[in-house]
Amino acid sequence: MTLQSRLRDVENRLEQACLRSGRQREDIKVIAVTKYVPADTAQAVVREGITHIGENRWPAAKAKWDVLKGQAVFHYIGSLQTNKVKDVIGKFDFIHSLDRLSLAEAIHIRAQALDIHVPCFLQVNVSGEQSKHGLAPEDVKTFITDLQRYERIHPVGLMTMAPYESEPEATRPIFRSLRQLKDDLNGMSILKEPLTELSMGMSNDFEVAVEEGATWVRLGTVLVGKEEIEEG
Ligand SMILES: *Cc1c(COP(=O)(O)O)cnc(C)c1O
C-alpha cells in the first residue's frame, strides 16, 4: 500500500468511528508514529499534511527532528529516563509519558533553564500489565496534586496503552476507564485547569479509542508502515 492510500484508509476509519459515536472528526488529532521508519518517510507524512510526529527514543528521533523541526510538532511517547531529559525537553512539544515525580522534577528544571513550559500527558497503566509503564490509576490524584510544585509542567491530559488484543473490542474497558479517570479528576477541583486531552489508541485499537473519547491517536504501523531501520 502506498502512503497516500494508507492515509485515506485511516481517515475513512476515523470518520466512521466518529459517526458511530457522535463525535466531530476535528476533535481528534493524529500523531504519526515514525519510530519504525526512516526520516524521508516522516517527511513524506508531513508533506501529506500530518504534522504531528511521535517518537519513543531520542537517538532514533534525531534524524527526523533535524529535517522536520519547525515543520512538525514533536511528541515524545516513550518512557523517558531522567538522564535523557536534556536531549528531549526543548525539542519535543508534548511529553506523553510523565509517570513519576523524579521525572517531573527533571523536566521542570530543564524547562526553567530554557524558560519554557512543557505540556505533559500523565501516563496511566490502566491494564495493570507488569510490562507497561505508567501510574496506577489510584495514584494519579496524589500525583497531580504533587505535580503542582513544578510550575513549568502543564498537565494537559492522560495517556494509556491498551494491551494488544486480537479482538480490538476487548480494549474498550481500558479506554473507558481512562476517560472516566479524567472526568473524575476534573470533578475534584485539584487542578488549576481541567484535563482536556486523552492520548489513546494505536494501530490495532484506534477506532475503539475514538469511540471512547480519544483526542489524540498515536498511529505507527497502520499509517506509515513498518520497516527495519538502522538507528543512528
Ligand atoms: C509504537 C507506539 C505507538 C504506535 O504503534 P502502532 O501499533 O504501530 O500504531 C503508539 N504509542 C506508543 C507509546 C508507541 O510506543
From TrEMBL:
<keyword id="KW-0663">Pyridoxal phosphate</keyword>
<feature type="domain" description="Alanine racemase N-terminal">
    <location>
        <begin position="40"/>
        <end position="226"/>
    </location>
</feature>
<comment type="function">
    <text>Pyridoxal 5'-phosphate (PLP)-binding protein, which is involved in PLP homeostasis.</text>
</comment>
<dbReference type="Pfam" id="PF01168">
    <property type="entry name" value="Ala_racemase_N"/>
</dbReference>
<protein>
    <recommendedName>
        <fullName>Pyridoxal phosphate homeostasis protein</fullName>
    </recommendedName>
</protein>
<dbReference type="InterPro" id="IPR029066">
    <property type="entry name" value="PLP-binding_barrel"/>
</dbReference>
<feature type="modified residue" description="N6-(pyridoxal phosphate)lysine">
    <location>
        <position position="35"/>
    </location>
</feature>
<comment type="similarity">
    <text>Belongs to the pyridoxal phosphate-binding protein YggS/PROSC family.</text>
</comment>
<dbReference type="InterPro" id="IPR011078">
    <property type="entry name" value="PyrdxlP_homeostasis"/>
</dbReference>
<dbReference type="InterPro" id="IPR001608">
    <property type="entry name" value="Ala_racemase_N"/>
</dbReference>
<dbReference type="GO" id="GO:0030170">
    <property type="term" value="F:pyridoxal phosphate binding"/>
</dbReference>
